[in-house]
């Protein structure tokens, strides 16, 4: 399809501001008469707070907030799920610390220096309790309990053996399916806790308003959910709560929920009756959130002809001290598992366990990379043991066009309408030279190269024909100005991947307006309709789907007004960009000489008092089409040092119509880096005696990939499958999280091809490689 703007590369709307340091992030916000806030955090993983002496701090002129100063409201900071499926166990400031680094007191003062001095003057008396820092020990009958009771919706429920929640799903008859299998493969995989490492730590600025309301500038992926939660916690009408939309310096899922410092900052501001600003240190941030670690047991039965007939997956997840989104996570992990391959008869059992560690939350794939590592490693194992080619085995069993797809769990099901899996696997095989790949036993010498592949997907949002457990809709407003320029107002957060650019391009394409004449307007929760959150790779498909939906309404209104002026039926009119006039015109179909510019229509509508050409509406997408990816990666393993190098990578994606092709490419390459970290380097390890992170809050070693570890840019090839999603704006789907999901599994499969050792646990560090090589093992640990 020939587009005017879609798929073309233009300078980013926020590009100049960002490269010149003029983009405003929450940490840049300064309010007159502002105080600076800090938090006192627990040094213990599990302790009751017996008393808090704030007298010395208050004598310094500081404002101090303790658990006694905040509403005793139990909430969940993630409000993406419907209420009856939302578990609640958190307070603004707790009376019991459940992990090292949990905020228990907050202080605000005229300067950060004074705030820190006042914080250190606070005396807290603790009753130290035995912690539970191991997931297996947490479920033992005599293990210390983190909670006796929590809430599910409005109902109190008992917590037994620190099991926060569980889910069991059975499709068909798995036992009968396994009985039909000619070969059964069973393995266990373990994925670690990983810190998000987003560039921006968390910031909150709150200004109390004269009418009793508050205005908030905060690091968030969802301005409207923050607004609603603050209104609920502090009993403020939503009409008096305003959350501003600002740029966000990366998130990777760490701000899907309302970040913990936001209500703390509000509590300080309300008590002080002055604006307060809080900025998390990196040490605070690493003790605030982490990726979900998982242990996955997978059993798969297959027939001699390569047909999968049965599968069984058991998942244990250590969620840490608070349940942010564990129940929907378990549902999503079921969906990631159910929708990769045609298992026929299968079972899924997921269980989330409380421990006295940093709370886990969504991070780049929301359980998908964990499931993908297990499944895609397993597919290679089956292929080798049964004599199948790994690519052909996948092609025989993958879920594609016409198959049922579980969006983000069993309650969201739809039919796949676009799929580039076969194209990507065929093209990727050719690009990497798959047919020339040699088995590991033929490789000798210090440096051994291997080629591995894996495929994956993510959903474009969480919608389905029927609404499921997750709320999913977006709103937008579009207005044509009297000079023919266009304003777009959307509450959708752009996390850096180009969602805002997509909104501009989609509007420009519908209205045939040049890209440079469409602008994103500054917005907040008072000026926009609701958007659930930028998560689930929904930005383009859902958030910009709403923009597309509203742009069509604006176009209809524009043509109706033009029809009045030109005395023509609106159905006989069309839009086009006239290069000679350097303007967008509305003309009679087949008779372009009879036309008028859109600026003239807007101005005449003003003069005639017809009204502004604008529309506001919401849209719930009734699908969440999978955006598929495939990774073909070559590794080089130094058998003397255990260091893994990646000399070449082929990154293939099916994103439907690429609205921003340059940014899709950037997403794929950036996700290669993050996937390398997950596979080879990253893990936030704990001291099981003190409950503290061994990296000491980012002060010491917490290795992540840099440009030094990445392949040269000329050795990374990107390919877009030729697909069109009929339910997406101009045929578009998402790419965001999909780009990461199969990176680690492809690297692990490549390492096996290089040295003949299978690793079931990440990160696959040099130490683990050397240990396996020196032991002559065939299984890595």
UniProtKB/TrEMBL annotation:
EC number: 1.17.1.4
Alphabetical keyword list: Molybdenum, Oxidoreductase
A single MF term (Gene Ontology): xanthine dehydrogenase activity
UniProt-listed InterPro entries: Ald_Oxase/Xan_DH_a/b (IPR000674), Ald_Oxase/Xan_DH_a/b_sf (IPR036856), Ald_Oxase/xanthine_DH-like (IPR016208), AldOxase/xan_DH_MoCoBD1 (IPR008274), AldOxase/xan_DH_MoCoBD2 (IPR046867), AldOxase/xan_DH_Mopterin-bd_sf (IPR037165)
Pfam families, per the entry: Ald_Xan_dh_C, MoCoBD_1, MoCoBD_2
Keyword Oxidoreductase: yes
Gene3D superfamilies the UniProt entry points to: Aldehyde oxidase/xanthine dehydrogenase, a/b hammerhead, Aldehyde oxidase/xanthine dehydrogenase, molybdopterin binding domain
Protein name: Xanthine dehydrogenase molybdenum-binding subunit
Protein's organism: Neomoorella humiferrea
Gene expressing this chain: xdhA_1
């Amino acid at each position: 399809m020939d587009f005017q703007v879609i798929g073309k590369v233009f300078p980013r709307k926020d590009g100049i501001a960002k490269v010149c340091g003029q983009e405003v992030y929450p940490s840049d916000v300064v309010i007159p008469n502002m105080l600076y806030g800090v938090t006192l955090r627990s040094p213990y993983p599990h302790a009751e707070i017996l008393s808090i002496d704030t007298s010395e701090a208050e004598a310094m002129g500081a404002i101090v907030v303790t658990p006694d100063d905040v509403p005793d409201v139990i909430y969940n900071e993630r409000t993406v799920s419907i209420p009856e499926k939302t578990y609640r166990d958190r307070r603004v400031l707790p009376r019991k610390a459940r992990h090292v680094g949990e905020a228990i007191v907050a202080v605000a003062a005229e300067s950060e220096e004074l705030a820190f001095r006042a914080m250190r003057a606070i005396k807290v008396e603790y009753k130290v309790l035995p912690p539970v820092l191991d997931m297996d020990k947490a479920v033992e009958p005599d293990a210390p309990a983190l909670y006796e009771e929590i809430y599910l919706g409005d109902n109190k429920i008992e917590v037994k053996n620190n099991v926060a929640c569980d889910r069991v799903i059975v499709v068909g008859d798995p036992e009968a399916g396994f009985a039909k299998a000619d070969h059964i493969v069973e393995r266990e995989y373990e994925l670690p806790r990983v810190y998000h490492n987003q560039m921006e730590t968390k910031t909150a600025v709150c200004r109390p308003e004269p009418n009793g309301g508050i205005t908030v500038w905060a690091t968030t992926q969802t301005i409207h959910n923050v607004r609603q939660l603050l209104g609920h916690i502090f009993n403020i009408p939503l009409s008096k709560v305003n959350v501003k939309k600002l740029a966000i310096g990366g998130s990777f899922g760490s701000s899907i929920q309302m970040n913990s410092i936001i209500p703390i900052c509000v509590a300080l501001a309300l008590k002080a009756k002055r604006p307060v600003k809080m900025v998390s240190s990196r040490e605070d941030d690493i003790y605030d959130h982490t990726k979900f670690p998982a242990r996955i047991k997978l059993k798969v039965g297959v027939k001699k002809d390569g047909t999968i007939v049965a599968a069984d997956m058991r998942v244990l997840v250590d969620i840490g001290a608070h349940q942010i989104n564990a129940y929907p996570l378990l549902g999503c992990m079921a969906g990631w598992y159910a929708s990769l391959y045609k298992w026929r008869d299968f079972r899924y059992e997921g269980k989330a366990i409380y421990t006295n560690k940093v709370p886990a939350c969504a991070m780049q794939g929301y359980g998908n990379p964990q499931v993908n590592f297990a499944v895609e490693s397993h597919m290679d194992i089956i292929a080798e043991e049964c004599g199948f080619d790994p690519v052909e085995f996948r092609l025989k069993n993958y879920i594609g066009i016409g198959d049922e797809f579980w969006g983000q769990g069993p309650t969201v099901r739809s039919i796949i309408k676009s799929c580039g899996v076969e194209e990507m696997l065929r093209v990727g095989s050719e690009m990497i030279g798959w047919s020339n790949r040699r088995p590991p036993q033929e490789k000798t010498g210090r440096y051994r190269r291997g080629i591995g592949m894996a495929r994956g997907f993510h959903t474009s949002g969480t919608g389905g024909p029927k609404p499921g457990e997750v709320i999913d809709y977006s709103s937008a407003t579009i207005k044509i100005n009297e000079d023919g320029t266009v304003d777009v107002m959307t509450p959708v957060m752009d996390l850096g991947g180009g969602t805002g650019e997509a909104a501009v391009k989609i509007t420009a394409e519908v209205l045939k307006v040049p890209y440079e004449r469409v602008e994103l307007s500054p917005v907040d929760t008072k000026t926009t309709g609701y958007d659930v959150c930028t998560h689930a790779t929904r930005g383009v498909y859902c958030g910009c789907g709403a923009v597309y939906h509203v742009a069509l309404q604006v176009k209809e209104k524009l043509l109706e007004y033009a029809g009045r002026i030109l005395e023509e039926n609106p159905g006989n009119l069309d839009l086009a960009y006239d290069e000679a006039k350097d303007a967008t015109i509305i003309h009679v179909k087949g008779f372009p000489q009879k036309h008028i510019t859109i600026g003239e229509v807007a101005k005449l509508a003003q003069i005639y008092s017809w009204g502004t050409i604008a529309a506001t509406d919401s849209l719930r997408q009734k699908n969440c089409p999978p955006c598929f990816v495939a990774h073909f990666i070559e590794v080089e393993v130094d058998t003397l040092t255990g260091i893994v190098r990646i000399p070449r990578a082929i990154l293939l994606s099916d994103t439907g119509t690429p609205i921003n092709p340059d940014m899709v490419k950037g997403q794929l390459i950036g996700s290669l880096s993050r996937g390398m970290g997950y596979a080879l380097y990253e893990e936030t390890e704990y001291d099981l005696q003190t409950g503290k992170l061994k990296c000491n809050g980012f002060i010491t070693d917490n290795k992540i990939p840099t440009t030094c570890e990445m392949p040269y840019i000329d050795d990374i090839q990107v390919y877009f499958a030729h697909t069109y999603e009929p339910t997406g704006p101009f045929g578009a789907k998402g790419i965001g999280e999909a780009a990461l999901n199969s990176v680690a599994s492809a690297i692990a499969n490549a390492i096996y091809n290089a040295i003949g050792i299978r690793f079931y646990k990440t990160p696959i560090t040099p130490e683990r490689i050397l240990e396996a090589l020196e032991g002559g093992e065939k299984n890595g640990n």
